[in-house]
Amino acid sequence: MKKYILTGMIALMGTALFISCGPSERKETADDEFTYEVDRFEDISVLKYRLPAFDQLTAGEKEFIYYLSEAALCGRDILWDQNFKYNLLIRKTIEAIIDTYGGDRESDEYRAFITYAKRVFFANGIHHHYSNDKFVPGFSEDYFAQLVSGSDVARLPLAGDQTVDELTSFLTPILFDPVLYAKKVDQTEGTDMITSSANNFYEGVTQAEVEEYYASIADPSDPRPVSWGLNSKVTKIDGKVTEIPWKSGGMYGPAIERIVLWLEKARDAALSETQKEELGLLIDYYRTADLGTWDDYNVMWAGNTGLSVDYINGFIETYGDPMGMKATWEAVVQYKDTEASKRTALITENAQWFEDHSPVDPQYRKEKVTGVAASVINVAMLGGDCYPASPLGINLPNSNWIRAEAGSKSVTLANITDAKDIVARGSGFMEEFAFDRAEIDRAVTYGSLSDALHTDMHECIGHASGKLAPGTDPNALKNYASPLEEMRADLFALYFMMDPKMAEIGLVPSDEPAKAQYDNYIRNGFLTQIVRIQPGKDIEQAHMRCRSAIAHWVYEKGKAENVIEVVKRDGKTFVRVNDYEKLRGLFGEMLKEVQRIKSEGDFAAGKEMIENYGVKIDQELHAEILARYAKLNLAPYSGFVNPMMITITDRNGRVKDVQIEYCSDYLGQMMEYGKKYSFLQAW
Ligand code: ZN
Q: How far, in Å, from the CA of 394 to the mean position of ligand 1?
């Protein structure tokens, strides 16, 4: 006998329960009914993503996906706390207000509060997810006090015998003072990046103390170093610099234990023996925080290729740490897009050819490019630092020696990319910023292929290429490491996109996709990406610094030959590529230099390249671009709500089938996650 158990995200054995994603949830299945955008506020557009052919997966694959999806959602609180130590306190206060506030919910101030709440949910905290700057509420301090005092006191996250007024007074400056905790990540040259950053990776220690601490434990001659500092907070105990590891029974223990619980179910449902073993290692690592076990896990995970369902779950990316050591928690659950994966397979099969023909100094090429496994996947669930703002491509693991010895896995997130592309079409953006009709037509015809290829090549062969000189400290580039690494991958993709090899192996019909990418890249790096930056601010984010540095460097180097031209027309600035072949040559030259910088750990040259070309914005141009962009009424950032998984279980509680429903209520999903996946204390 089958028992039908419907749940949102948690399988409650033996209980029939339906959990919607919120009051305005509606189901959408037919193609023509599918509306991607579900919410819009400030600079954010929230979309939903489809799960193509999910129903064609086997019961076993769906069950596995479901357990991994639960594990992906259970670490949400960890990221909030990593981003800033009072984020959970703030979120719980906001949730209490939304659920219980007894006052007028139709007023402008209440609407401003809801907008603020949506922004905080989107950013997993009070700092902008992309710029890392704190955003301040669009309502008054008095109104905040009114909201808190008008809510159910039992729901407020009060500390011990704290009064409601005391909570309000504590939170008010944190929310409203623009100077206090102003930046989540501060990489401004010359500042103590640790004390000036508001993230929660370090407390009561200076940059110098942290550098000294890690220098004392890391052995630079170790050919297989663990990822020092990846999974711990650094603070002082009795005046001594100490690491507090994130693990079961330790910091973030209650959330990690829930992740482990679901990973254990996933392990039992794994699709192969090696995948089972790999999940066992991940569980051990969460229990011990042992970085050696983390490396063992990654070696195994990198080797487990070709599976129809795969995942990312752990402390992975270090963009949130100005020192580039501590990783934010993230998770993705994914299944393979078989057709599109043939394209990445072609790139991967030729990885060695690309490496051998790369313009970098031969001593910094890899003699043997190992197992750059690439696939095109569809996302089934996003968690932690991949939710709601999702990447479009991911290449892991990050450890240099594991990449060299065991290879890496690279994925392009097809359904996420598709949702963004469909929404972007017809937005008027190209008509405003492209130089001429030919450029627009080329983008319309080849844009999708060209973007997909660029992402694939960036991930599959770009990041995987090159090697360090013997004895180079992998952390030598410090705060410039991330943008330089992105440049390396982008330049590798840009350089080879126009290589005759591409047509020869059947990836492109002609040079046109490469030209579309060159137009797009230069336009974006020079002009359009700065719509994401506030007037007067510098570029901070690694990928943006990368694109700006590349566009400005090749512009300057090609100036004498007019390779790229800046054209003024009716008071509007455009960029135009005059010579694609020469531009390709410049990409190659720059790739050679960036690889040299990485291989030799040349901090001074890396710094100079980023600071000179990647950080500053021409103020006059910025104002012009912002004004043109504002007229289009678009949101510069997008993110996603997750689907809901409805499980059907047998009498023993085993998941027999999973059905997908699409959520169209962004705030509803956030509130639901706050109830179901909150395992850490506010204080
Ligand atoms: Zn990258």
A: 7
- Measured in Å, residue 543 CA sits from the centre of ligand 1 at 8
Extents of the domains making up the chain: 79-176, 207-245
pLDDT band at 21 (very low <50, low <70, confident <90, very high): very low
Strands (E), 206-319: 232-237, 240-245, 309-317
What Å distances lie between residue 96 and 89, 147, 320, 608, CA to CA? 11, 10, 28, 48
| Three-state DSSP class for residue 564 | strand
- Percentage of the chain lying above the pLDDT 70 cut: 94
**Exposure of 672 in the CB half-sphere (CA atoms within 13 A):** 22
Q: What is the tens place of the pLDDT at every residue in 495-525?
A: 999 999 999 999 999 999 999 999 999 999 9
Question: How far apart are the CA of 677 and the centre of ligand 1, in A?
Answer: 30
pLDDT at 636: 85
pTM listed for this prediction: 0.79
The amino acid at 342 = K
Exposure string for 556-572, b = 16+ CB within 10 A, e = fewer: ebbeeeebbeeeeeeee
Q: What is the pLDDT of residue 370?
A: 67
| Distance from C-alpha of 57 to C-alpha of 13, rounded to nearest angstrom | 23
Q: How far apart are CA 76 and CA 381, in angstroms?
A: 13
Residue of 376, 400, 378 whose CA lies nearest to 298 = 400
Q: What confidence tens digit (pLDDT) does each residue in 410-430 have? A: 888 999 988 987 787 668 899
- Distance, CA 464 to ligand 1 centroid (Å)? 10
- Give me the helices (H) in 601-659, please: 603-610, 619-632
Nearest 10 degrees: Cα torsion 153, 159, 160, 161: -60
The continuous run of DSSP H or E covering 209 comes out as helix 207-217
Pairing of strands 372-384, 408-413: parallel
